[in-house]
Amino acid sequence: MMYGIFVNNDGVRYADAIAGGYKTIETRNRNMLRALVGKNVHIVSTSRNRKPMVIGMVGIVSAEFCPADKFDAYRDQTLIPPGSRFDATTRGKWLYHLTNPVAIDPYPLPADAIRHGISWCEF
User: What three-state secondary structure class fits 99?
Assistant: First the structure.
């Protein structure tokens, strides 16, 4: 079984930035990727009106909760601009530290992928 994390590629191309090694922290509002910490996962690029595409692989090293008032310290690693719809809420965000990104020739997410909400899948 392979795992994939869904990463938005609208506006700022976050999925491409992870595959290219420029985005070293992925974020979520809730601890949705906890089951994948310590694993290598596929990067699944999602965009409005397009099929999800598998574009790379990355390791998820660790997870930590970051209060909103400390989030600015991680902007250079998350690439999330202030005021973005992905910015930290008043509560904060979960940070997933990434390692060893590899870009691959893109291919569509298999139709039989098992989706675990909007955060990750198995295929």
Answer: strand
According to CATH, the topology of domain 3-122 is 2.30.130
Could you state, in order of their start, the residue ranges of all structural domains in the chain? Answer: 3-122
Give percent helix, percent strand, percent coil of the chain, each to the nearest 5.
15, 45, 40
For the stretch 2-56, pLDDT in tens is 999 999 987 889 999 999 999 999 999 999 999 999 999 999 999 988 999 999 9
Residue with tokens 């420029």: 22
Q: Where are the beta strands (DSSP E) in the chain?
A: 3-8, 25-28, 40-46, 53-66, 93-108, 114-116, 120-122
